[in-house]
């Protein structure tokens, strides 16, 4: 399945609105991390998503 090109900012907004991280969202995050060209702000977005998961504010679903 191809990964759509959504910005991390858009992904963050989508996840925070729905309060869930889907399998597709995880694939997009993994692709961004493995791409190796993230800037400091993009790393901060990913860290904020992980923080929200740890706090229980966002759930991971399949």
Explain what the structure shows:
This protein has three helices and two strands, in the order H-E-H-H-E. Helix 1 (8-18) packs parallel to helix 3. The model has no long low-confidence stretch (mean pLDDT 91). 11% of the residues are buried. The chain has one domain (8-60). With 62 residues, it is mainly α.
SSE series: HEHHE
Query: What class, by secondary structure content?
Result: mainly alpha
Average pLDDT metric: 91
> How many domain units?
1
Short account of what is shown:
About 65% of the residues lie in helices and about 5% in strands. The protein contains 3 helices and 2 strands. The protein has helices at about 10-20, 25-35, 40-55; strands at about 20, 60.
Q: Would you spell out the secondary-structure blueprint of this structure?
A:
Elements: H1 8-18, E1 20-21, H2 23-35, H3 40-55, E2 59-60
Parallel strand pairs: 1-2
Helix pairs in contact: 1-3
Key descriptive features of the protein:
62 residues, mainly alpha, two-stranded parallel sheet, globular
